[in-house]
Amino acid sequence: MPAPRFLQLADVAEVLNISANQVYALVRRGDIPAVKIGGRGQWRVEATELEKYIERLYTETKQFIDTHPFGEEAEQDAQL
User: Fold this and answer.
1) Which 3 state secondary structure label does DSSP give 65?
2) CB 44 within 8 A of CB 5
3) Global confidence as pTM
4) Tens digit of each residue's pLDDT (9 = 90 or more) over 61-76
5) Per DSSP, what are the bridge partners of residue 8?
6) pLDDT for the residue 1
């Protein structure tokens, strides 16, 4: 059976290992694109959008690491 196209916020929370409230905040801020579906307006995140979000986080993290490298002291501390 193929993976579902749309995920509930609880499913996204499970993938990211964060709370559903944190996912809701990410959606409301526009960090993770989502749609409201149905009369009750339930949020859904497209699986491809979640993967794009994760890739953005990897890129941002790499950029952070590249611009904030460990100094020798930090590397020595990490080895202890």
Assistant:
1) helix
2) no
3) 0.80
4) 999 999 988 765 555 5
5) 44
6) 84
User: What is the CA angle 38-18-61, rounded to 5?
Assistant: 110
The list of the chain residues with pLDDT below 70 reads 71-80
* DSSP character at residue 18: S
Whole-angstrom Cα distance, residue 45 to residue 9? 7
CA dihedral (19, 20, 23, 24) positive or negative: negative
Measured in whole angstroms, the distance separating CA 29 from the mean position of its chain's CA atoms is 12
State residue 70's pLDDT score.
79
* Residues facing residue 37 across a β-bridge: 42
Give the length of the chain: 80
Q: Which of 79, 56, 78, 60 is nearest to 68 (CA)?
A: 60
* CA 20 distance to own-chain centroid: 12
